[in-house]
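Email to the structure team, subject: SYT4 protein model.

Hi all, the expression group asked for a predicted structure before they design truncation constructs. Nothing fancy, just the tokens so they can compare against earlier work. One-line instruction: predict SYT4 protein, return tokens.
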Amino acid sequence: DEIPTVVGIFSAFGLVFSVSLFAWICCQRKSSKSNKTPPYKFVHVLKGVDIYPENLNSKKKFGADDKSEAKNKSAMPKNSLHLDLEKRDLNGNFPKTTTKMQSSPDLENSSPKHFVERKKDSVSPDSLKSITSLSSEDKQDKLGTLFFSLEYNFEKKAFVVNIKEARGLPAMDEQSMTSDPYIKMTILPEKKHKVKTRVLRKTLDPAFDETFTFYGIPYSQIQDLTLHFVVLSFDRFSRDDVIGEVLIPLAGIELSEGRLLMDREIIKRNVRKSSGRGELLVSLCYQSTTNTLTVVVLKARHLPKSDVSGLSDPYVKVNLYHAKKRISKKKTHVKKCTPNAVFNELFVFDIPCEGLDDISIEFLVLDSDRGSRNEVIGRLTLGSSAEGTGGEHWKEICEYPRRQIAKWHMLCDG
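Reply from the structure team: attached below.
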């Protein structure tokens, strides 16, 4: 009987001791956590800048009120470094400060011996200010500026052209108000060397930074050459839109001293412009197996302005003729107040005969007017008997069935 009693007493003492030890450990941990304070408040580290002074642990450094901050700012010298923690963004970064650079950014990656800037061709801060401070009317007339560099490598007998960037290009896409620019370059007068840059999507300030090296051109012949840059905007529906061109005669340009930075204004290309009634972009495809004709009305541009509102509300009516008899008709939706409409509407016509010999198709571009009869802006006819581009387009459709062929056409008077 004594042995169980002794075991019970020792068990009770052991349980009390374990509970007391556990409680003491918990109290120690709690007190250690309450006494532990962080050594400093987190601040985003700027490269090359020491932002941890010796007295950083002082609460006044971070918890000062507005009055003390105002006094510190007024007492601080202009050249000292001051980081305002309240101006940080969500990532803890400080806003970048703009500093005046004495040289162009392109000069940082090149040595002074091999890089020369002409005052008349270099990009100065004043010229950039003049570009950005243009009025809205001037911006409409401006086609942008092209920046490039020229260099001649005497060791390899190579002529090097670096197309850097273009700024302030006009928007060729009316919906997104952007362009998909790229540049074609040709060395005149022989036109043997033709190159082009990659297409940069949805930008009006493309940065190409592409270098083209032409070997086998003696330095004595450089003065007789002319560089021809053509700035275009890629269009997946039809031929690419021409924004403008730049011509650089190399006569009088010295490249013996090193690389030369240049910039030129982009001017309108000397091409045939649409006059009168405007232009219409259509795409056609003849399916000989199903005997159907697929017609896609894509775009219209340079439509004339109406007399009342100043802008037309165009839509396109499509008529299919068989032996001079209309057998089917379709029409697109109305585009409000625009001389450059984007339709992108597809129509499928069943052909009642074999082949397209007796088939013709008519496009009527009309101005929608609720108050009176819709006025015909322009007319386009495609068929075997059509003249000009209409006949050429129809011939291609017949020669290449199952192929979607798109072309711009001048509209005739309605």
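Residues 148 and 163 are 5 Å apart (CA to CA). Residues 35-88, 90-94, 96-140 have pLDDT under 50 and may be disordered. Ping us if the truncation boundaries need rechecking.
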